[in-house]
Amino acid sequence: MKVLITGTSQGIGLAIARHFLLENHQVIGIDRQTAAISHENYTHYVCDVRDQENLPDIEGVQVLVNNAGTQNEQDIDTNLKALIHITEKYGIQKEIKSILNIGSASGHTGAEFPEYCASKGGVMAYTKNVAMRVAPFGATCNSLDPGGVITPLNECVMNDPELWAQIMAETPLKKWATAEEIAQWAYFLTVTNTFCTGQNILVDGGESINYHFVWTE
Q1: Total-model pTM
Q2: pLDDT tens sequence across 1-58
Q3: Backbone torsions φ then ψ of 4, nearest 5 degrees
Q4: 101 touches 118 (CB < 8 A)
Q5: Do the bridges between strand 63-66 and strand 98-102 make them parallel or antiparallel, or are there none, so unpaired?
Q6: Which of 67, 177, 191, 205 is the residue whose CA sits 20 to 30 A from 150?
Q7: Domain boundaries in the chain?
Q8: Residue 39 confidence (pLDDT)
Q9: Given this structure, which CATH class describes domain 2-208?
């Protein structure tokens, strides 16, 4: 299938692109950085997803993965507004089979920076809107909302023993996901899945269900 993925130069987006290539799909990446993949079935466009005027013309996208995002860097413009524009440009059309928005557990819990949480909460709502609009094409749209993931963007806490211990205390499975694990979820939700739609799939190692129950002995 013809797969368009945003934010493919590192982290989750890079892992998703590689997974689709391993499964012999045609992959197109959009990222403001240069390509991190060299493969005969991969095409890369250097472009900021916020730059609506210079986005490439790509016809017949069958799978769209909106992965590009920022944290504390114009979050609403990148994580939500650009995602909406990318989806309207490439995703709402008769060839589409599935759309996946990479959200965040923070959209469910509110436990992060204000604009980041707001942007990811907006992604959750927009996912449901899109699911209704692509259903006539027989297509699905979901959001995949990870908790902690081992990526370069998170090294500031991963490499701090004290902060890492605090994070693990809040994570029942005592680990974070790898980017490859998230890529497996992305592939399942866009290729294997044909019926689940309009859902916000939370994958966070149990962090959001952690609680401290206080009661009398």
Answers
A1: 0.95
A2: 999 999 999 999 999 999 999 999 999 999 999 999 999 999 999 999 999 999 999 9
A3: -110, 125
A4: no
A5: parallel
A6: 191
A7: 2-208
A8: 97
A9: alpha beta
